[in-house]
Design goal:
3-stranded antiparallel sheet; 8-stranded parallel barrel; 332 residues; 34% helix; alpha/beta
Length: 332
């Protein structure tokens, strides 16, 4: 019985943080150790984390830790605060386990969110990935300025950066994947990251769009390798629709319908990288709805796995459920 699924999607979206705040206040951080990973100085007790978009404003990090994730991603964060896109912005279809959104990076802005992250004890209980994006009013030709500003702003509190140019809900954002734009864009960000931190710079991960062609994916991987990106998150939400989808053509779809796209991108990425995969991090996200799905992505070759929709459709204790199943059915 999952009573929250009977609530309208907008109401559930507004009330869900309340549960996490209450649960977090009554519980202590929990470590579920299985298939632990060490990478670039970061320690992951387990490979299952919270995807970007779930905790946009870094309000719930301490409240998520008692649930047992191996890492938490916050954001997307933009330099200036911004509201969600106008009109209806979220939807949920329980039968098909589908989420839809056209939120467009609503967040409290870099200054406020950095203060929240500074209040967390360091080193962090789990690694924290900081997902960054541009403000919607920033012209696309000046987008890298927003990302460079955020690299500078969060270099002392981010355990890793996630470069988000793959959201379908910010106008022209995905055009930055174009081979005429991406090299200069990524080079500037990677170089700034090397100088912004007084210590070892946080790794940089590029979050990819599932709507790329296979050829586009390969070109993006080749360019980002040359630019010394440290890994990739596969994938963001999709604009593709099943003919029976109840949602409009704009906005991103996540949940079960994204499963095959995300799995295919993981396979294509591993095959294309070949030996260039060494030392790079591959994070699989999209359509992971059950413990079996988690284990499948790891067996396919993902280093880490992230979930969002399963925390809605299965519930907040998904991390414990996977931990229990890891001892029953999964060879570590």
């Amino acid at each position: 019985m999952k009573p929250w699924l009977f609530l309208p999607s907008e109401v559930g979206h507004l009330l869900s943080p309340l549960f996490f705040r209450i649960y977090g206040a009554l519980s202590s951080p929990k470590t579920y150790s299985w298939k632990s990973l060490q990478w670039k100085g970061l320690e992951f007790a387990n490979p299952l984390g919270v995807a970007g978009g779930f905790d946009k404003n870094a309000l719930l990090v301490k409240d998520l830790w008692p649930l047992g994730p191996g890492f938490v991603e916050v954001g997307t964060i933009t330099p200036l605060p911004q509201k969600q896109n106008p009109g209806k912005t979220i939807g949920r279809h329980n039968k098909s386990q589908t989420l839809w959104n056209q939120l467009g990076f609503p967040n409290d802005g870099a200054d406020i969110i950095k203060k929240r992250l500074l209040r967390l004890k360091h080193p962090h209980f789990t690694p924290i990935f900081v997902n960054i994006g541009k403000n919607r009013q920033t012209p696309i030709e000046k987008a890298q300025d927003d990302y460079i500003f955020l690299i500078q702003k969060f270099s002392e509190v981010a355990d890793a950066f996630v470069i988000n140019i793959s959201s379908p809900n910010t106008s022209d954002l995905r055009s930055l994947f174009g081979p005429e734009k991406l090299p200069q864009f990524l080079t500037a960000i990677v170089q700034e990251n090397k100088t912004a931190s007084a210590t070892t710079p946080p790794p940089i991960l590029l979050k990819l769009s599932p709507d790329m062609s296979v050829e586009g994916l390969k070109k993006t991987l080749d360019i980002s390798l040359k630019c010394e990106v440290d890994g990739w998150i596969l994938t963001n939400t999709t604009l593709q629709r099943d003919p029976t989808s109840p949602f409009p053509q704009h906005g991103g779809i996540s949940g079960a319908p994204l499963q095959e796209l995300s799995k295919n991108f993981l396979l294509q990425t591993i095959q294309h990288l070949g030996p260039n995969r060494k030392g790079k991090l591959l994070v699989s996200v999209g359509g992971i709805m059950s413990p079996k799905d988690v284990f499948e992505r790891l067996q396919m070759g993902a280093d880490l796995v992230q979930v969002y929709s399963s925390l809605i459709f299965d519930g907040p204790f998904f991390f414990k459920k996977v931990f229990v199943e890891s001892h029953n059915d999964y060879t570590k």
